[in-house]
Amino acid sequence: MNADVLNTLAGLAPESELAAIRARRPEFVEGAENCRAAVIEPKVDVGLGLPLRSALAARMARLNGDERLAAHYRAGVPKDDAELVLIADGGFPQGADRRLRAILRHVDFITVAPRACTRSDTERLVAEGLTVPEVVALAELIGFLNFEVRILATLDLLRDTP
Q1: Could you read off the pLDDT of 66-89 as tens digits, one per residue?
Q2: What dihedral angle (degrees, nearest 10) is formed by the CA atoms of 140, 143, 149, 150?
Q3: Nearest CA to 33 among 155, 151, 134, 118?
Q4: SUPFAM superfamilies recorded for this chain (predicted)?
């Protein structure tokens, strides 16, 4: 298993009470780490490679106001890829094709207003050139990243509550 990224990002020392509480449920800790590996670095990327997934994850973390998580994923973005750096930092590349524009609009929309999403929003992705496996992979990425943001917020609250 990989290191516990959430404990690290939350600033939990391995010997802390909260880290010990989390360690009592290793299936949850390992589940989150295994999910990260499957969503961010899948064995088959179905057209959404690791650099793009990292940039999108950093973008969503930033939209959620979690700079720690944004920096974590931003580290996976090649520094020499100006387009992906811009995406990770919340920008829209001027020369982006319609597929990439659709991905960025969708990621931003779902992250900011998840309850407003309808079936037509997902169907629009296919109309803009994404394959069904890409739409599924994108949905998994959006769901997982937003889950991580909430777990970190909960860990922060528990850590900071006397």
Answers
A1: 999 999 999 999 999 999 999 999
A2: -140
A3: 151
A4: AhpD-like (SSF69118)
Q: Return d(Cα 68, Cα 74) in angstroms, integer.
A: 10
Asked if 94 and 72 count as a contact pair (C-beta separation under 8 A), the reply is no
Tell me how many domains the chain contains: 1
- Whichever domain contains 92, its CATH number is 1.20.1290.10
pLDDT tier, 3 (very low <50, low <70, confident <90, very high otherwise): low
CB 90 within 8 A of CB 64: no
- The percentage of residues in the chain with a pLDDT greater than 70, rounded to a whole number, is 98
Q: Are 69 and 148 in contact (CB under 8 A)?
A: yes
The amino acid at residue 142 is I
Taking residues 121-150, report their average pLDDT: 96
Q: Domain containing 45: what range?
A: 5-160
DSSP the chain: ----HHHHHTT--TTSHHHHHHHT-HHHHHHHHHHHHHHHS-SS-TT--HHHHHHHHHHHHHHTT-HHHHHHHHTTS-TT-HHHHHHHTT---TT--HHHHHHHHHHHHHHH-GGG--HHHHHHHHHTT--HHHHHHHHHHHHHHHHHHHHHHHHHHHHH--
- HSE-up (13 A, CA, CB side) for residue 97: 5
